[in-house]
Design a protein that fits this description.
It contains 10 helices and no strands. The relative contact order is 0.17. With 222 residues, it is mainly α. It is 64% helix and 0% strand. Helix 1 packs across helix 6.
Length: 222
């Protein structure tokens, strides 16, 4: 999910490829309990408002009315919050990807559905999605390695769907599927740069428009 377009990706994965593992768990902060959820929402809002680098653990503690020392019951440090946000987001989006990728629908239909649902997740989770484009650079080596693996996974899912649709004759056979994948993923990951949440139908309209524009490119690349 992190928009690391400079990171090389592998060739398109077969439909049997499994999604990558998430980063290791962080103490007891799992979002299942109301207090955990409150801490995570506060961190997301602060990272959105101030940026990750300018946000301190004290800021998060203040936002939820906690003592700083009490917050360390949940986390070892600030990066744990970023890691948990990325974990939760990847869990949601990879579930979408796997459901669509492994369905029995035609390749072009799987591709269309994935583009729409992937874009829809971005416009309905703008604050969380923006962290991938803006804050992944602050991740330490271990977390960054996980994010690169996740980025490659999504690229491979999309590239595989494009290649399958080409083989079915539904897309331009001369299209460079790898380059098209980079282009489309970059376009969708930039949605948080300009889109601001509004009505549900507006979000659906934007997601549908991005999917349609992508499909036009794929069908008429020459």
């Amino acid at each position: 999910m992190a928009d690391q377009r400079s990171v090389p990706t592998a060739n398109a994965a077969p439909r049997g490829k499994k999604r990558p593992m998430t980063a290791g768990a962080t103490k007891t902060l799992d979002g299942a309990k109301s207090r955990d959820h409150e801490v995570m929402n506060a961190a997301i809002q602060l990272f959105w408002d101030k940026g990750y680098a300018a946000t301190s653990v004290q800021d998060v503690a203040d936002a939820v009315g906690m003592l700083k020392g009490s917050l360390y019951y949940y986390i070892d440090g600030k990066e744990d919050l970023l890691k948990r946000i990325f974990q939760d987001s990847h869990a949601e989006v990879s579930t979408i990807a796997e459901r669509v990728r492994t369905s029995d629908a035609k390749a072009i239909d799987r591709l269309t559905l994935f583009l729409e649902e992937y874009a829809l997740w971005y416009v309905t989770h703008v604050k969380r999605a923006s962290l991938y484009a803006r804050e992944w650079r602050h991740a330490g080596p271990a977390l960054r390695s996980v994010l690169i693996e996740q980025r490659q996974y999504y690229d491979q899912v999309l590239q595989g769907m494009i290649s399958d649709a080409q083989q079915d004759g539904d897309l331009d056979p001369d299209l460079d599927a790898r380059m098209a994948t980079f282009y489309i993923m970059s376009a969708i990951s930039s949605l948080p740069d300009w889109y601001r949440p509004g009505k549900a139908k507006q979000a659906e309209s934007v997601a549908h428009a991005y999917a349609e524009l992508s499909l036009r490119l794929l069908r008429h690349a020459a």
